[in-house]
Automatic annotation (TrEMBL):
It catalyses: 7,8-dihydroneopterin 3'-triphosphate + H2O = 6-carboxy-5,6,7,8-tetrahydropterin + triphosphate + acetaldehyde + 2 H(+). Pfam families: PTPS (PF01242). One of its GO terms (biological process) is tRNA queuosine(34) biosynthetic process. One of its GO terms (molecular function) is 6-carboxytetrahydropterin synthase activity. Its cofactor is Zn(2+). Binds 1 zinc ion per subunit. Belongs to the PTPS family. QueD subfamily. Zn(2+) binds at H14, H27, H29. It comes from the Bacteria. This is 6-carboxy-5,6,7,8-tetrahydropterin synthase. Its EC number is 4.-.-.-. It comes from Desulforamulus ferrireducens.
Amino acid sequence: MYELTVKSRFSAAHSLCGYPGDCARLHGHTWTVEVKVCGHELDKLGMLVDFKDIKRQLSRIIDQLDHSLLNDLPEFSTGGSNPTAENLAYYIYQSLLKPVAELRPGLKLKEISVWESPDAYATYRED
Ligand SMILES: Nc1nc2c(c(=O)[nH]1)N=C([C@H](O)[C@H](O)COP(=O)(O)OP(=O)(O)OP(=O)(O)O)CN2
Ligand SMILES: [Zn+2]
């Protein structure tokens, strides 16, 4: 089994509704997103998948988040959930599941991790 990891960053603001502390107030982070994909077969170039292809798919999602107020995204404004690192990891996972699988047969999205700071991150993966 091979595993590839790609990271990217974006800047965005959020507030955590109902949080018992200062995170309930509007504030911002430079978020880091890490994508892990896995599969068994390499192509004739010796790649599981080109890093560039994963980066391109991740950029499609991140470009919509960059310099935004995350609470305004439909996923959070209409869904009523907070834009936590956990919920963002879930959102990005669901957004990338099909595009990653379509890059090549046998390629799977393994997990998404989202850092709010260098010291704290959340990961979403399917059981
Ligand atoms: N499980 C989670 N806990 C917290 C989240 C989250 O998304 N999931 N988010 C926050 C706030 O967004 C907060 O801004 C981040 O807190 P923290 O990582 O502690 O960052 P700080 O810059 O506030 O660091 P300090 O060392 O506490 O000053 C809170 N919890
Ligand atoms: Zn925060």
